[in-house]
Amino acid sequence: MKFLIVFACMLAIAFANEEANVLRSEQEVEPDRFNYVLELDNGVLLEQQGRLEGDDVWTVDGSFKFISPEGEEVGWTYNADDTGFHPDPNSKWIHPIPAHIIKSIEYIKNHPSQE
């Protein structure tokens, strides 16, 4: 879980590409849940919420957005749980996700492994 938070922060810094001032930084951390928001004046916005499900399974929902060098707002939403990281295929990425990949993701989502 800590890795995901650190990764998101590092990603924000990598995409900032300039000196950026913090407009908003909020953190709330409890033993069974957390919430944070980081907003920079260059268009970067990170939001993430997590909650403990049971004894050791975290469910996390979040989003990330930034302004591309072309001036376009780009971002995505995601969730993560004990089955892995699940980005929303309908989010606006830098490059559009090909239709066959979206179809494959939907198929996998609707036909989980029988193991």
From TrEMBL:
Coiled coil: none
Pfam annotation, one family: Chitin_bind_4
InterPro entries: CHIT_BIND_RR_consensus (IPR031311), Insect_cuticle (IPR000618)
The keyword Signal belongs to this UniProt entry's keyword annotation: yes
Keywords: Cuticle, Signal
Residue ranges of the TM segments: none
Signal peptide: 1-16
Annotated protein name in UniProt: Larval cuticle protein 9
Phylogenetic classification of the source organism: Eukaryota, Metazoa, Ecdysozoa, Arthropoda, Hexapoda
Gene: LOC105233884
